[in-house]
Amino acid sequence: MGSKERIQRLKDENRMKILQASLQIIRDEGLSSLSMRKIADIIEYTAPMIYEYFANKEAILSELAAIGYLKLAKKVKEAKEQEKTPEKQIEAMWLAYWQFSFDQKELYQLMYGIGAPCCEMQKTFQCTDSHTKLITDVIKEIMKDKKPSDELICRKYFTYWSIIHGLISINLVNKGNGDETNQQVLKDAIHGITRSLNN
């Protein structure tokens, strides 16, 4: 390995250490506690060195949110690939989304901490297999006989997302009505919206 590659690998490792330390602080102490000084203390570097990798705290949070979107897309894609029919795929994908929101609670809260219109949500985090695109492709498949417009597909996605994100938000604040009831409410919501796609 040449010196150029070695330097780049070291930079990539340092960048990842900064992101991991930031997420650790957010998990342990909350988002408001994140500071360049605390990150520097954890990774045993100076705070000015962190600025060589990230312009400010917001840049770190933006990078963490981007990582969250990629992880979520992977989970949603894996769930889709486990099922054969579009109706089963849409249920599996939203259940994977639900699970991700609790497994990666801090990332999820970073990803959706600031409201954005439905299909604008990920313009900053473009990738061909975004979870939004994966899900809207299945919605389009279910509705193919109606030849739906992009606007209608976006609205249907937003209907799913609003209900599921609302239920997640309730449960992030407290436990809602218990796991069994939460799962039933979630499945009822998914099934109800899915039925409406062909009406």
UniProtKB/TrEMBL annotation:
Q: Does the keyword Translocase apply?
A: no
Matches recorded under InterPro entries: Homeodomain-like_sf (IPR009057), HTH-type_Tx_Regulator (IPR050624), HTH_TetR (IPR001647), MT1864/Rv1816-like_C (IPR025996), Tet_transcr_reg_TetR-rel_C_sf (IPR036271)
Top-rank taxon of the source lineage equals Bacteria
Question: Would I find Transcription among this entry's keywords?
Answer: yes
Give the HTH tetR-type domain ranges: 12-72
For this protein, the record's Pfam families field holds: TetR_C_33, TetR_N
Which positions make up the DNA-binding region?
A: 35-54
Arranged from A to Z, the UniProt key words for this protein are: DNA-binding, Transcription, Transcription regulation
Q: Which Gene3D superfamilies does this one have? A: Tetracycline Repressor, domain 2
Query: What name goes with this protein?
Result: TetR/AcrR family transcriptional regulator
